[in-house]
Amino acid sequence: MNPQPLAGKHAVVTGGGRGIGAAIAAELAQAGARLTLMGRNRSSLEARAQQMNAEVHIETCDVTSPDEVKRAFRAAQEALGPITILVNNAGQAESQPFSKTDLGLWQRMLSVNLTGTFLCTQAALPGMLEAGWGRIVNIASTAGLKGYPYVSAYSAAKHGVVGLTRSLALELARQNITVNAVCPGFSETELLEASIARIVQKTGRTPAEARAELARHNPQGRLVEPTEVAQAVLWLCLPGSAALTGQAIAVAGGEVM
Ligand code: NDP
User: Which residue among 13, 59, 68, 189 is best mutated to probe the pocket of ligand 1, counting the most ligand atoms within 8 A of its Cβ?
Assistant: First the structure.
């Protein structure tokens, strides 16, 4: 077995400074890819890059800004060459009952989770078409496959990511470029800690009770580890995964089937 199946490939991971994105970056780097990590916070990107034993470039970029995205992808390509792997991982999850979901929250969720994925894909795709090979993996969520109460805007955005994935996969099916979504269940990251804090504040439950409540969604009775999500992403990026496209793969202990 080739220990470095992605040697020579340049992968961009948005939101690569922490959480699931950092785990994905580590997994792709171990498989030999050169990495560009993108996110808004330069110091967390720098800290992550220093921890990685690989060729890593960083670009600060807010994925909701068309101009920043264009600039960052251009700079990444100049630094490490053509981008043939894109992992759209940057995301945020705010919750409110629907009656308190104002237009601002709605637009924030669509903007970062869905429009960000659109903008980064538009920026990376021409290079993949030119290279005649590409892998696009969108980190959606189980909330892109089913509903949960109090996250209608987030869930709508993530369902949108799955729809974008399926349509683009068909458009690119004959171009040697695959497009897939990975849909994690509740996973151990800062994003989850923020959800736990909100549950504690709104319901008076203890943090342990709130955590246990989220873990109960998963038939395995636990939270998902970022590395488990990262391994699914790596598999989709491998050269041998060419027949896998248009899929939305839940990494959630059987929560969705
Ligand atoms: P974290 O909050 O730990 O990390 C989110 C990452 O996204 C950070 O690196 C952050 O970097 C980046 N980010 C956020 N907003 C922007 C923006 N506007 N532009 C660029 N980067 C941005 O979350 P997770 O690791 O948990 O989440 C990663 C992905 O996985 C998200 O898409 C999330 O929806 C999804 N997911 C997570 C689940 C979970 O339970 N944790 C479950 C299902 C899906 P910075 O702040 O520096 O910009």
Answer: 189
pLDDT in tens, 140-188: 999 999 999 999 999 999 999 999 999 999 999 999 999 999 999 999 9
Please calculate the CA angle 252-253-257 and round it to the nearest 5 degrees. 75
Question: Is 139 near ligand 1, meaning CB less than 6 Å away?
Answer: yes
Q: Is 148 a catalytic residue?
A: no
pLDDT in tens, 184-241: 999 999 999 999 999 999 999 999 999 999 999 999 999 999 999 999 999 999 999 9
Say whether 246 sits in a helix, a strand or coil: coil
Give the distance (Å) from ligand 1 centre to CA of residue 115. 14
The helix (run of H) or strand (run of E) holding residue 51 is: helix 42-51
What is the DSSP secondary structure assignment for residue 39, as one 8-state letter?
E
Q: Pairing mode, if any, of strands 83-88 and 177-184?
A: unpaired
Residues 6+ apart with CB under 8 A from 204: none
**Ligand 1 center to 16 CA (angstroms):** 8
Angle between helices 226-237 and 19-30 (to 10 degrees): 50
Task: Reply yes or no on domain 10-185+225-250 having CATH 3.40.50.720.
Answer: yes
Average pLDDT score over residue span 86-103: 97
* Predicted pLDDT at 2: 85
User: Strands (DSSP E) along the chain, which ranges?
Assistant: 10-14, 34-39, 56-60, 83-88, 134-139, 177-184, 248-251
C-alpha 1 to ligand 1 mean position (Å): 32
Domain ranges of the chain: 10-185+225-250, 186-223
Residue 60 CA from chain centroid, whole number:
16
Distance in angstroms (rounded) separating the CA atoms of residues 193 and 210: 10
